[in-house]
Amino acid sequence: MLPSLKNIEYLVALHKHLHFSKAAQACFVSQSTLSAGISKLEQGLNVQLVERNNKNVLFTPLGEQVVEQAKAVILSAQDLVQISQQSFFESHIKIGVIPTISPFLLPSFLASIKNKYPNLGISLIEDTNQNLLKMVSTMELDLALIALPTNIPENVYTHTLFKDPLHLVHHKDRNHRAFNDKELLLLAEGNCLREHVLLAHNVTQDKISDIKCTSLPTLTAMINMQMGVSFLPKMAIEQTVTLHYPNLVVRSACQKTARKIAVACRDSHPNKQDLIEISTLIQAL
User: Fold this and answer.
1) Which of 62, 135, 219, 235 could cysteine-pair with 213, CB 3.0–4.6 Å?
2) What integer best gives the mean pLDDT of the chain?
3) Pick from 33, 49, 84: which residue ends a domain?
4) Minimal CA–CA distance to 186: which of 144, 159, 148, 214?
5) Which residues, at least 6 apart from 211, have a Cβ–Cβ distance to it below 8 Å?
6) CA-CA distances (angstroms) from residue 206 to 200, 210, 224?
7) Buried b vs exposed e over 185-214: b needs ≥16 C-beta within 10 Å?
8) Which pLDDT does position 203 carry in this prediction?
9) How far lies 239's CA from each of 82, 93, 110, 185, 233, in Å?
10) Are residues 68 and 135 in the same domain?
11) How confident is the model at residue 283 (pLDDT cuts 50, 70, 90)?
12) C-alpha span between 144 and 135 (Å, rounded)
């Protein structure tokens, strides 16, 4: 007899939380129900998956293998549910977007989706490239708006929408071309825009400022205060620098200084083509 999908979900939740009570809360069941479900799964498979004591939850080596397969089973079951929906454009999708894109593209993008697909529900999350791609890979997200280049998981498909040049921006009173020591302002580690700038330019560590900004608005304000210079995306310049910072100068980008704005979805997503169709609305903005 095949194991219960519910018991498989209990096992994956326990592996994630390593705590029976927390796993039960995540599954919205009692601790005794979750524990009984995992015991029944072990009995049905005739193996021990979990070692239990008063302090710890430990998975056996075989249990670790079963959990990985269990995750694949759950993903397949989720695919089954999505395929069975009558209309994708009357369903609900989850979209992720990186912070250096969301303020500039998201309002118009969501308005376009609402106008063309009024019955499509949307949930949103903001996070880094790599966190979003991980969530796409595990189907926690249907679609992600990201910036390339970046490392793409094997089971994730990306579709490039357009190039977004990165222009050097500085105060009008700055009159030299080379970077001074500690002059180049960058976003904090983990932000893809920081990596794109460093990838495109051979910048030595002594030129990078000790000031680490967490957002593009803060970075722009620092430039305006003559705290340094930086490379900003064209989409940010058009909506912030040009409109609100008359003392800032924008220099033309060289050919190599650009990021690619792309969408990502799981390659085997049952609605992959529909998601790409939605994403192409960005190109018309």
Assistant:
1) 219
2) 91
3) 84
4) 214
5) 185, 222, 227, 228
6) 17, 10, 22
7) bbbeeebbbbbbbeebbeeeeebbbeeebe
8) 85
9) 38, 28, 17, 20, 10
10) no
11) confident
12) 9
pLDDT of residue 53: 78
Contact 232, 187 (CB under 8 A): no
Distance in angstroms (rounded) separating the CA atoms of residues 172 and 246: 9
28 sits in the region (left: phi over 0; alpha: psi -120 to 50; else beta) called: left
Tokens matching residue 29:
């069941």
The alpha carbon torsion through 148, 152, 157, 162 (nearest 10 deg) reads 0
Cβ-contact 147, 99 below 8 angstroms: no
Residues 184 and 237 in one domain: yes
| Higher per-residue confidence, 54 vs 92 | 92
Taking the C-alpha atoms of residue 83 and residue 245, their distance in angstroms, rounded to an integer, is: 49
Which tens digit of pLDDT belongs to each residue from 192-239?
Answer: 999 999 888 888 899 999 998 999 999 999 999 999 999 999 999 999
Dihedral of CA atoms 280, 148, 235, 127 in degrees, nearest 10, equals 90
Which residue carries 């400022």 as its tokens?
Answer: 209
Q: Do 227 and 211 meet the contact criterion of CB atoms below 8 Å apart? A: yes
Per-residue pLDDT tens for 43-80? 999 999 999 877 788 999 999 999 999 999 998 888 87
3-state SS class at 171: strand
Cα angle 103, 108, 114 (rounded to 5 degrees) comes to: 125
Total domains in the fold of the chain: 3
What's 242's DSSP letter?
H
Enclosing domain of residue 209: 164-259
**Are 137 and 21 within one domain?**
no
